[in-house]
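Researcher: Let's do a round of design. I'm pasting the structure tokens now; please hold your answer until I've finished.
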């Protein structure tokens, strides 16, 4: 998933061997957050449905040999934009309430939240960074309420492989892979790829 695409309107586009689902703002609105999901062609036939919720939230459901996976791509507001953050989590909760509870669920990408390393059993682990910001507290509460696991925080990494964002001499963890109970045990590792040339100050986060 790519966040902050600044792309307008909503739709799909084929680029080489990949299909892009993008959700942006109306054409006459200034380019803002917007998100996009890039899917390999070998998986596109397995997509049962997708939804452009709004410019910072997009979802799709994928059929696999072991059942269905619902993926929700999110770009949350930056720290300090409290009203926008409340609105986003309200909308995100609506999507959580609607998804099929027999599905595996993945919430991915830029939550602009620092959840810290003070543990919440099976929700937040001890391998995050020291800092918790207001967005991070909101994410901790959201994950606790829904019994979701912030997977990044459960795997010990070297400092250079822990952080998901770096710019202007600062670094932090603000991009997450968050999973529901069905995926809590199958997720065996989270990897940060610092060498991926994405033209972004965010690093690629994979599981």
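Researcher: That's everything. Go ahead.
Model: Designed sequence:
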């Amino acid at each position: 998933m790519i966040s902050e695409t600044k792309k307008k309107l909503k739709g799909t586009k084929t680029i080489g061997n990949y299909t892009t689902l993008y959700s942006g703002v109306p054409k006459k609105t200034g380019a803002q957050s917007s998100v996009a999901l890039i899917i390999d062609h070998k998986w596109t036939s397995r997509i049962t449905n997708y939804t452009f919720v709004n410019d910072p939230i997009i979802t799709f459901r994928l059929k696999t040999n072991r059942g269905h996976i619902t993926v929700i791509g999110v770009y949350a507001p930056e720290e300090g934009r409290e009203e926008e953050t409340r609105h986003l989590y309200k909308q995100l909760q609506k999507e959580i309430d609607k998804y099929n509870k027999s599905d595996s669920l993945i919430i991915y990408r830029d939550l602009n939240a620092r959840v810290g390393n003070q543990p919440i059993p099976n929700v937040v682990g001890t391998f995050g960074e020291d800092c918790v910001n207001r967005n991070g507290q909101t994410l901790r509460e959201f994950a606790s309420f829904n019994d979701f696991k912030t997977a990044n925080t459960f795997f010990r990494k070297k400092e250079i492989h822990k952080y998901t964002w770096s710019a202007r001499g600062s670094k932090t963890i603000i991009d997450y892979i968050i999973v529901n109970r069905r995926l809590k045990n199958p997720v065996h590792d989270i990897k940060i790829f610092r060498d991926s040339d994405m033209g972004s100050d965010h690093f690629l986060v994979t599981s």
